[in-house]
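Before going further, it is useful to explain how the protein records used in this thesis are read. An example of such a record is reproduced below.

***
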Amino acid sequence: MSNIYDFKMKDIFGNLVDFKKYKNKVLIIVNVASKCGNTKQYADLQQFHSMFFDKGLCILGFPCNQFFMQEPKNENEIYQFCTTKYNVEFEMFSKIKVNGPEACELYNYLKESFPWTSRAKNVKWNFEKFVVDKTGKTRYRIDNKDSILNYKNEIEKLLNE
């Protein structure tokens, strides 16, 4: 794929989502899990969604079970969990793999577009965040331990560009 808008991914309900719909939006793409020490970040992400959705921010959550089996639930259970416990309103997608030979193409693209270093590209853990600007360029890669709330100023700048 040559850019982020070439991708099509299944949402949590099994519907194919064409990423062309995200043109001129700022994206936060995050791998999520329900049984992780970082799971409370769902609340931070939802807060960000509430603050910036109307200004052009889209948060895309991708459940992943690659890190110590911390997302064992199926899509329906994941949806029930994140909407009931964290009132998640941002877009959720079907479960994927983010590393290894079975990693989805989207995450391979993101890791190549913004590696940690030239040799370290893999996603480190659940709740690692990629921030994509309105032109489709990956601008930030945020560590799994960092709350998105710490990046309010950076996101506001991207939304205003």
